[in-house]
Amino acid sequence: MSNSNLRIVSLIPSGTEILAILGLTDAVVGRSHECDYPPEIQDRPICTQPRLKTNVSSGEIHDEVNKLIQSALSIYEIKTDILERLQPTHIVTQDQCDVCAVSLSEVEKAVAELTQAKPQIISLQPNFLRDVWADIERVANTLQVDAIKVLENLEARVKIVAQKTQGLSQTEKLPKVACIEWSDPLMVAGNWIPELVTFAGGEPLFSVTGHAATQLKWENLIASNPDIIIFMPCGFDLNRTRQDTELLTKRPEWQNLHANQTGRVYITDGNSYFNRPGPRLVDSLEMMAEILHPEIFQYGYKGKSWDTL
């Protein structure tokens, strides 16, 4: 199938970014309500909508998500009428996290209802960095485009960071880093995030590589007293993260944290970067490197996609 015959609907932001880096932006005919990058994608019809309000507090969002999941409802719904009209040849979705985007089973159900098209479903399920590269390769193979140069370039950028931090553990103690993915309840980021911390010359606290985010007790955060705390709430941009984090800093124990006293608490645009398992995880690694070791790395992301709290 030539590129001109492809009609792709992407229901996950990382999928949209993978399609874009493979040169397939023009073949994307529909997107999810959260697909916002690259910017030129924003004029494509939106095929999903959330069942919950996102302009409420983190605690309320968490409760709302749990209620939906307990009543066996998905958090997002697919607009099947729009899918029907778009007649896609392929749908890119995910089977990793029901809170992040529409679930694979919802997509399969929607596709079964289509009368015109019988699109092929490409489902992404990344837990490690290498899975993201494998996803890029799989999307490329399915859609018959070449991913070699793209992957070489991404992997080269990772290597540059890893090589510059390689000798650090011999010369100095690596900073202990806590990456917070949600503030109420407190959750630490998992999956590929510990790998990013390690490559960037840090020691990840609490998180297990390849496993989803886990809840963390306040006492445990206080007791571990990290050198660096990085906030990367799922679905929040830099401004929303700042508002969210400022509520936490009002807690009395906050003042005693080493990271707070040394000015090493950071906020990031977790939505565009750290929580989105696409090509911009490499940008996320470079940001992590700047945060952890400003004496070695200056990429120029500060103030744009991360900042000091």
Following the backbone from N to C, one meets helices and strands in this order, namely EHEEHEHEHEHHHEEHEEHEHHEHE
Residue windows where pLDDT falls under 50 for at least 5 positions: none
The first-to-last residue Cα distance is 49 Å
Q: What share of residues are in beta strands?
A: 15-25%
| Number of helical stretches of at least 4 residues | 12
Radius of gyration from the CA trace? 20 Å
Main sheet: strands, sense, barrel: 7 strands, mixed
Envelope shape: globular
The tally of beta strands, per DSSP, is 13
Global mean pLDDT: 88
Assign the structural class, choosing from mainly alpha, mainly beta, alpha/beta, alpha+beta, or little secondary structure: alpha/beta
Helix content: 25-40%
Brief overview, please?
The protein has 309 residues and is an alpha/beta fold. It has helices at residues 13-21, 58-70, 80-86, 104-113, 129-142, 148-165, 168-171, 193-199, 218-224, 238-248, 258-261, 281-292, and strands at 8-10, 28-31, 48-50, 76-78, 90-94, 120-124, 176-183, 186-188, 203-204, 214-215, 228-231, 265-268, 306-308.
